[in-house]
Each structure stands twice: as structure tokens, then as C-alpha cells.
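User: Second chain of the day. Same drill as before.
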Amino acid sequence: MATSYESNFVRLGGALAVVMPFILSASFAVGVVLQTAAGQTYYCLSNLGVSSVPYVPYFFNVPLIVSGIAVIIFAVALTRVVRGGRLFLAGAGLLIMSGVFVSLVGVFTRANPGLHSFVSNTQFAIFPISVILIGVSFLRNGMRREGFVSVVIPIVTVPLGLFANYGPLFTDHACAASEWTAALGLSAWLIWMGLNLPRLATRGAKSVPQDVSALS
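Assistant: Same format as last time:
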């Protein structure tokens, strides 16, 4: 039986996964409004992090740092609920790394273009991989709904994000379009899993999946 500390930690992880995407989106939106009201464009969202408009960088960098920490807490809480095998743990480990890089995007702004590009591109790459690995692990262990959603969301949003960045329909704000698309996918999965985390926690140890790879 889970201790009170573990139960509270799982609830915290689920709550952060649900709440933080809304806080992050609202904060970005405020930054965009302030930026455009000051007569400045924001070719990509990351420009908000180095904006000369008062307070705009705080609306971009600080929520990113906090959101990365929230992703890490959620990922750890997920491992407390789903004690899976190597495939699941690989996905959860990449999810933790993704949270680290989300925070680093807010630390290494476009004032450090090389580091900023590295951490943002790395985060964009490893997050969908982590979710797909977790989803495949769910599918292999009979958790069809969790697995289907976890696999489909990145498969849909990653191509959309790439099209938004390189497609012909987005010219002036191409990068911003891709960032919003990627953020939408990240947010949708986090919110959905955060809402389902308490339900997964009540399944009990006998219902918790163990990857086939861990038993072979």
C-alpha cells in the first residue's frame, strides 16, 4: 500500500501536469500581447526571452524553468505509479531529461544562440520519443487507451510542428507557429496523463504493467 507521502507526491505530479500547461500558455500569451503592443514582432517565441520590452522576458523564461521542474516531478510520480520494465523506464528517463531541457530553454536564452538552439532542439527531439516509448510500453501490457493516446499525440503533433516551421503557409512567424504546435502536443499529453494519474494509482500493484522486455 502506498504511503501518505507517495500518495501526496502522485497527486502533486498529476496536478502539476494539468495546471502548468495552462499557466505556461497564459504567460506566453501575455508576453506576446505586451511585445506586440510595444510595436515589436516576435518571429519566434524564444525572442520573448530576450525582449527589450519591460517584463516580457520574465513571462517567457520563468514559466519555462518552473514548467521543466513540473515535468520532472510528474515523470517521477509516473514511475511511482507505473513500475514498468526497461522500455517504460527508458521513456520515463527521457521524459525527465525533457523536463531538464525545458528548464534550460528558459536559462539559456537567445542571448546564447548556440546553447539555446541545442537545448530547445534537444527538448523537441526527446519529448516525443519519451512519450512514444511510454505509449508502446502501455500497449504491450494491455493498457490500450493510455498507449493509444501516448503514441498518437506525438505522431500527429511532430509532423504538424515541422510543417509549421518549414511549410509554405507560415513565413513571418514560422518558428512561432512550430513552437506553439509542439507546445500544444506536450500540453495535451501532460494534461491527459495528469488527469489519469490518480486513476492509475488506484489500480493496485497487481494491475501495474511489467514490460515484456523486463521479463525476458
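Confidence is low (pLDDT under 50) at residues 204-208, 212-216.

User: Great, on to the next one.
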